[in-house]
Fold:
Amino acid sequence: MSNILFFFIFFSVQTIGSAVVILFTRNVMYAVTALLSSLLGVAALFVLAGADVLGVIQIIVYIGGVLVLTLFGVMYTYQSPKRYQESIPHKKSVFILIPLLFVLVLLVQALPLLPMIDDPYQHASKVEVTGMLWLTEYLPIFEWIGFLLLVVLIGAGWIGSTLVQEDKSKGEQV
Amino acid sequence: MNPLQHTDPMLLPAHFLHSVALTIFFLPVLTFVILFFTGKHISTSWRSWLATSVVGLMFILSLYVHLSVDVPIIARWSWFSMGTLHMTSGMVLSSFTTSMLVVVTAIALMVHLYSMEYMKDRRNHSKFFPYLALFISAMIGIILSDSLFNIFIFWELVGLASYLLIGFWYQKKEAAAAAKKAFLYNKAADTAFVIALGLIFTYYGTTELTLLRTLISSSSILVPTGIAISIAVLLVLSTFGKSAQFPFYVWLPDAMEGPTPVSALLHAATMVAAGILVLIKCDFLLVEQMRWVLVWTGAITALLAAIQAIRCYDSKKILAFSTVSQIGYMMMAIGTGNTSAAYFHLGTHAFFKAGLFLSVGAVIHTMHHIQQNSFKNKIYLEVDTLDIRLMGGFRKTMPIAFYAYVACYAALIGIPFFTGFLSKETILASLLQNPTYSIPFGMALTTVGITAYYMTRQLYWMFLGDFRLAALYPSCKEEQRKIKENHWLINIPLIVLACTTLSFFVSFHPFHASDIHWMKAPLPIVGGSTSIYLPIASISITLIGVLLAWSMASKEQLYNWKQYWFWTFVQQNYGIEKAVQFVFIIPSFLIARGLTYLDKIIDMWVNAQAYLAVLLAHIVYAIDRFLIEGVLKGIVFLIRIVGSSFRSLIQGQVQSYISTTLIVLALMFWWYLRQLH
Amino acid sequence: MESFGLTILLWLPLLSLLVLLVGKYHQPGTLRTITIVTTAIQLIIAVLLFIQMVPEYFPLHTSDSFVYKDFHPWFTLPLGQLGYLSVNYFVAVDGLTISLLLLSSIVLFVGALVSHTIQFQEKGYYALYLLLCISIPGCFVAQDLFLFFLFFEFMLLPMYFLIGIWGGVNKEYAAIKFFIYTLVGSLLILVSFIILYASTYSPTEMVRLSGHSDITVQSIQQAVMDKTITTSDMVRSLSIQDVTKPTNIVPGSWLDPASTTQWLGISARMWVFIALLIGFIIKLPAIPFHTWLPDAHVEAPTAVSVVLAGILLKIGGYGLIRIVWPIFPVEAMQASTVIAIIGVVSIVYAAYVALAQDDLKKMIAYSSVSHMGFVLLGIASGTVEGISGAVYQLFSHGLISALLFILVGILYERTHDRSIAHYKGLLNKMPAFTVVVTIAFFASLGLPGMSGFIAEILVLIGAFQASQVYSTIPIGVTIVATIGLVVTAGYYLWTLQRMFFGKFSVHTSVDAHTLQDLTLMEKVVTYLLCGLVILFGVLPSVLLDTIGPWMQTWVQFLQQSIQ
Amino acid sequence: MIPITLYFIVGAVLFAIGTTIVLVRRNVLFVLMGIELILNAASINFVGASQGDYIKLSGQMMTLLIIVIAACEAVVALAIIMVLFKKAGSVDLMELKKLKEF
Structure:
């Protein structure tokens, strides 16, 4: 068992375990923390797969952006500990079958299809290539993505602003 | 013009006299239209004068036409055509038709003058003169037409006019019933005319009498004997209706419900004369094999009607029966082939019968006034003003009416020096010439006596003796005395008609009609009395009748003959009406009822079909419901279970929707990946 | 250019229908005015067409026999083994059509005038009425059986609703009965038309559609005789001219006179003839297919009864003269004795049933059946007089029955009671009404001087002639028909006596104050019809001189066919 | 190198857990986190599959795309959650049944 495989298993367990915690915890704050751990695990898995740049981006974007946003969301929607503590209804446990269906599909149908890839360049760095491709071949796509992001941000801002306006109008009425 | 539309050789151009004759025909039509539509908007006197002056003009024109006509002139034009086939209207002007024209217009003139006064205050006056005009125009149409088809049209129109005039006082139930009866009896007889017309048209190809006469005399068309006989019989039958012969004559006494001037016109010149007129016109169609029918019917009718008059108390009905009886004589004359005698009697009869009716009408008019005046004095006379038993004594109060009546009476019973004697003698003589007709001759001779009897009886009861109504209501005596004489408009026609009954008016020979000078002899009068014994016999029989009546009448009590069954039978028209009722009318209603039920049965059958269809539909529906729908319901039930189980997933929660999506997605992956293998 | 008038006459109501449906009319009477104006224009055009018509001799069953004619190709439908169906918009006017066109215009106009009794859903009523104004004249002028059937069915539907919605107490029953009876009739007609279609071909249409100059009618006929043209290549047309030509029958088909196809011992031609005959006789109607008529007439509102009796019955007679007899002349002459007997039975039977009726409207309805018997008798006679009488009877009965139903409607509108026994002495209260009723009754019983007389006497003469010319109708049968005349006179006069003469009194259920005499409008309508009845009675030449030549060619065709 | 199968299995498990969270949890915020997990599972697969690719790097680029989209999604989703909370007063999916058809 090589070191890489060990790390792989370790981070995999970290990722999946954290995810399981999200699944079962009742506390949103615990869940956010577990999500942080899970995303970190994924970033590590990226690095293990030779995608160093992606790992970094994962940390920056997810942990720096998304997670903070989620925290804001948690704070904003905070009600009371009672309501905050939720329970999973038994009836819904049936839904676990659906993900299992997907796992089944994967195991039975998809995995036998996978080609065995022989890697001639063991762990050669892909950072340089990534940078080159970003600025050449994939540039238009990233431009578009950037534009999309802008639109989304504006949209989100607009949605949020309606809330503020409603608050204002409500306040004036009172 | 179309080359194919050739000129029909049958068509003949019109002479100037034809236009005059057409004027005579259309004048009353015009009068009818004007008076009918102006109605009550013009005054009674205006209306009367207009109608009367028109008839006067017609009389003058008729005289002119009659005097101008020499040989028969015929005009014929196409009335309507169907392709090359023409329906023609012909008009014949001969001394025969024009003299008839003169007779009719003369009597119409008298009746009009008379009606001016007679109808003055009566209800519904505005309709009287137009109907009269219609009546006269229809009659003139029959006289002038040369085509049987046209004759039939006017024939029916005469029926219509008589219907309207008999039912003139429509508020009287009896009048309405009598009008209907007259029309229906005539209509029944007319069907015979229709059939005859159809047969003639089929076998001869034309209904123009002049053409038919030529065809038959030249024997260019051979018609089966059976058909020829049927045509003749049918024609004769149809005239039995109009001319009131046995057994159709029962409508005539009832027709007395109409106003008296109408009766005068109807009996003298128009309706009953029409039948005889047509028979004279169609004489050549009457084959020898069936002429005995005419003689026998005429004899029977003459005798039966005369017998009925013996016990009759209705002043107008007595005259009606005498008309029927006299028409019977004319039938006999036609039967013996002596049509000129028939025509002669028709002409003389027209005048004296009109005179009789008008003079009796004058008496009735007075009676009516007495009744009216009594009403004013609060004395209600609930009596029949036509009843001769209530009359009497008018000889003194109304001498003109009386003498006019006597003159016409003498003509009717056949006193020498009066016209009736001459014409009756001619008929009796022609009967005598044929030995096979000895029984009809005997009947005719008997009828002469009976006629003398009942007419004398009427004379006695009406004019002589005391005023019998005064015996019941004494105040009437005064009333009768007050009304001295009638209006001059009533008297003038009476005087004129009385004059025309003198035999000098037609012939200078008082006992023989051979040197007839009356205007222009329309038809050569053949026969006449050949032996001296016949006039003697008939005169003596007449005298016996008169004397018998004189002696009996003075002894006759009121209401004393009714108990004898024979007279009851006689007064019920010898049961003819009962027979008609039982043989035709009641079966007709039974058939009508029966056929209505049959109709209902057909309807029931149709409805049953519909119900069966509905029943079938219900059965199919039941099968549908329990079998096919059951299966369907089962399927639906299954689907509903599945559906409800699925629906529990879809409770409006986002997650449920997502789960469904994911399941489908998984299955799609499964399927897709399988494809890749 | 002459067909221009025909086009307007036929399709003007469609325009009015659009105007009527699109607009909103709050003013009462506007809808009626539109309808009256439309029908009045139709009437004027019909009269103009009639006046311009020149009576000439035309060979029957060629396109030359039409005075006004409008021909447009419509569509050609391939039907596989049965060849091609060529349908044309072919409308034309000839001697027979013009009389009925004139009649239908008059009756529709009069019907619109008396429609004021309709109180609710006027829009629907007038829309349906205008639809009738298209379909009825259309039925008469259509020279293509396809078109004819289209118009024929379009007449049925409005009639059903007009009876079923605006009718009397028992309207649903009457409407359904009418509908089913007529539907059975039109089903038989449709089946016959299909067989006709399958058994005939149209050389003229083949020439027209081929467009080649070297293809002529003769060459096509020769080719069909030689069987070089198969049935699936034939162009067939339901044009009446094509169908009636004996040379157009496909050799070996069902309707080939030489064919020996038999069923129950009766040839196929005879079967189709019987089917067509029954189909049109139901419409006429004759015994025993008549029971729809009294119900439909009694329940229908006045204007609809007028149209029903005035025109719809005439289509039965029209179909017999125009379609059945020319297509099956031999069969018709073979069956003419039976048909004449049916006609005579109708005359006498219906007259007797009318005698037993207590409902005035029902009595008149039965008198219609009786009078239509004369039409059947006249057609069966096959003589010029008989057929002219039949057509004249169609015309005259249209006027007279319209008048009679209007008069009954006037009385019913006032008192809502049609029972004869409930009235006595109406003459005292309603003199003008009585005068018109008397004229109408006498016209209906065939008094000379009225149009009915000419018709009946011509039919009777024709029937008598048939006994000699063809020896088809025994004289006895015709003599029995004259009994009908007496019974007819009986029930009319009896009704006059009971209802109008005598002292005035009414049944307690009738309000005597409602018995007003005729209003101005009613006077105009009834006097108009009375005038027409008398005009056509006194001057039959007005109509017969114009249509007579057509009748003569019709009879000539019949006589040639049976030789 | 690590066999792709392993990456796939990890991705699948992560996906399964994320899906389960999405389907089962009532709090909208948890659902949002579940979605993030699903997206990460997809990213893992892409990255794992493009291990041997040194020229095109399609898988990595796709992952980058996913990350960006995830960011966008998170932004919009949070905005919606806030509005939702404001309107409905709850972030509990059991109480949000407006999509129910009857």
